[in-house]
Write a structure and sequence with these properties.
- This is Protein kinase domain-containing protein.
- By secondary structure, the chain is an alpha+beta fold.
- It is built from seven helices and 13 strands.
- Strands 1-2-3-4-5-9-8 form a seven-stranded mixed sheet. A three-stranded antiparallel sheet has the order 6-7-13.
- Helix 4 packs antiparallel against helix 7.
- The radius of gyration is 22 Å and the shape is elongated.
- 34% of the residues are buried.
Length: 321
């Protein structure tokens, strides 16, 4: 089989240097077997596998064996292939019990829906010979929004007054993009801060990874709204602040004595939501938005529209309009 791979590379990428030649896969069911120097053939398109993508969270990197960094032989363009991987797990947020699962077909639908809309990653899907729905994705050159915010080299007060207003305005635009999905009866499904990227050059905010779905009968779009709230909390605090991380953020220990159990996130229980107790220059109206996502809240946002109305009002207040 390696001779077939050698001939394909010689034909399409004659200048490309590769040290070994693998196999051609037309059935990607056993995605763990698809590795460096193999070729995935989907219809008339061929993709040379270069490496597995990595999941980078909490300072750790885990390989995502179903997500392959590739080079498309027909045009030499870098691509990401997301192969079919199913998983299902429960999640509890406050009083809500949510069933989450991966749905490749759902991500394929969204890719069709957002084609040409650069608020989202771009791509298309193709079935392999076994009927697995493989998504072919363009690579976004840029950085995660949380990394961009973390790397702004100023103290929190300077960040909040000089940088945050523009960040909030652009984040509201990213929320508008999620509203577009909801208006079309689709969910993002996995909204978290590493799934919102800032594209190099344009500095546009762009959403990635739509293959999670969830069942929340009380509010079909509720998990997306909670995800947007968690990102906003990070953006306001310039970090996810916990009792353990206060020292790292140069926050006076005395502040901790003012924090009570109701000041923590309903989504991730050790994260402080009541940022105004830490930074007293946070407007009360903005802090009230954050407190909708606290464990002490009895009222949650029902929709992205509600959240955006409040954020827009806060933006005007912050800018003194």
């Amino acid at each position: 089989m390696s001779s077939e791979v050698r001939e394909l590379i010689k034909k399409h990428l004659p200048e490309y240097k590769i040290s070994r030649f693998g196999k051609v896969y037309t059935d990607t069911t056993e995605f763990m077997n698809v590795d460096y120097s193999d070729i995935v053939k989907l219809g008339d398109e061929h993709f040379l596998v270069l490496k597995n993508e990595q999941e980078r969270r909490f300072g750790l990197s885990d390989p995502k064996y179903w997500v392959k960094r590739c080079k498309q032989l027909e045009n030499g363009q870098p691509k990401i292939l997301k192969l079919v991987f199913y998983e299902k797990f429960p999640m509890n947020i406050g009083p809500f019990k949510i069933q989450c699962f991966r749905s490749p077909r759902k991500e394929a639908r969204i890719l069709d829906l957002v084609k040409g809309d650069m608020r989202f990653m771009q791509g298309y899907s193709l079935d392999d010979t076994a009927g697995n729905n493989v998504r072919v994705l363009d690579i976004i050159r840029g950085k995660r929004l949380d990394v961009v915010v973390h790397n702004i080299p100023v103290d929190h007060k300077t960040y909040f007054h000089e940088y945050f207003p523009e960040i909030l305005e652009k984040y509201i635009g990213a929320c508008e993009a999620i509203k577009f999905l909801h208006d079309n009866d689709e969910k993002h499904g996995d909204i978290r801060r590493d799934h919102l990227w800032v594209e190099s050059g344009t500095l546009d905010y762009r959403w990635i990874d739509f293959d999670y779905a969830f069942e929340l009968y009380e509010n079909p779009f509720g998990l997306d709204v909670f995800g947007l709230g968690s990102i906003l909390i990070y953006l306001v605090g310039k970090a996810n602040i916990t009792a353990q991380s206060m020292f790292d953020h140069k926050i006076d220990k005395e502040v901790l004595s003012r924090i009570d159990s109701g000041d923590y996130s309903v989504v991730i229980g050790n994260r402080i939501v009541n940022i105004r107790k830490i930074y007293d220059y946070i407007p009360e109206s903005l802090n009230n938005i954050l407190m909708h996502f606290s464990s002490s809240s009895s009222v949650f946002y029902e929709s992205v529209d509600e959240l955006m109305v409040d954020m827009n009002q806060c933006l005007k207040e912050i800018r003194g309009l």
